[in-house]
């Protein structure tokens, strides 16, 4: 029985006793824990038309996006409700739309556009966006080229 759980069903009830009641003041719970929530999305792979060269913009290429959303305090750690956090599926759809609806010369501009939209649409303390070209159009051997942008929300 190595590695197998040997508890019984009553153990689950005991775990629930340690959970704070939803009626408790959520702010007091967070102050005690210093809790902060970050959502990370890695490897969002999209076919896009970004780049300086005409070929990049016409033919297009695969772009990989990584995102880090700093929510700060989130009631979802207590309520377990999607309404109290950011829906990362929705974020992926929005980022895909932004990345595919128009072309930018630079990855810096693309990342800045994505960061600005996420900060504007969601209650975030900050957002980090990384765009990677896995097959950059460079005459020398390079594994990938990437650009990162970090933006904090204005208070």
Main structural class: alpha+beta
Q: Per DSSP, what share of the residues sits in E-state strands of 2 or more residues? A: 25-35%
Give the end-to-end Cα distance, rounded to a whole number of Å.
55 Å
Q: Widest sheet: strand order?
A: 1-2-3-4
Please bin the fraction of helical residues.
25-40%
Series of H and E elements: HHEHEHHHEE
Q: Tell me the number of structural domains.
A: 1
Largest sheet descriptor: 4 strands, antiparallel
Subunit organisation of the chains = single chain
CATH level 4 superfamily: GTP cyclohydrolase I, C-terminal domain/NADPH-dependent 7-cyano-7-deazaguanine reductase, N-terminal domain
CATH topology: GTP Cyclohydrolase I, domain 2
Mean pLDDT: 84
Q: Which radius of gyration do the C-alpha atoms yield?
A: 21 Å
Shape: elongated
Stretches with pLDDT under 50, minimum 5 residues: none
Number of distinct helices: 6
Number of strands: 4
Overall CATH class: Alpha Beta
- For the record, the CATH architecture stands as 2-Layer Sandwich
Description:
With 155 residues, the chain is α+β, with helices and mostly antiparallel strands. The protein has a single domain (35-152), classed as GTP Cyclohydrolase I, domain 2 (2-Layer Sandwich), CATH 3.30.1130.10. The protein is 35% helix and 26% strand. The chain contains six helices and four strands; from the N terminus they run ααβαβαααββ. It has a four-stranded antiparallel beta sheet. It starts with 9 loop residues before the first helix and ends with a strand.
């Amino acid at each position: 029985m190595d590695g197998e759980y040997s508890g019984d069903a009553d153990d689950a009830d005991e775990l629930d006793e340690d959970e704070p009641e939803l009626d408790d003041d959520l702010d007091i719970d967070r102050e005690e824990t210093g809790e902060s929530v970050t959502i990370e999305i890695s490897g969002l792979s999209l076919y896009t038309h970004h780049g300086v060269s005409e070929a990049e913009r016409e033919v297009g290429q695969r772009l990989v996006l990584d995102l880090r959303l700093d929510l700060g305090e989130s009631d979802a750690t207590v309520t377990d409700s999607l309404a109290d956090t950011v829906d990362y599926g929705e974020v992926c759809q929005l980022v895909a739309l932004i990345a595919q609806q128009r072309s930018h010369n630079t990855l810096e501009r693309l990342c800045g556009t994505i960061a600005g939209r996420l900060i504007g649409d969601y209650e975030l303390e900050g957002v980090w966006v990384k765009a990677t070209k896995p097959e950059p159009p460079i005459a020398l051997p390079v594994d990938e080229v990437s650009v990162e942008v970090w933006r904090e929300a204005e208070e």
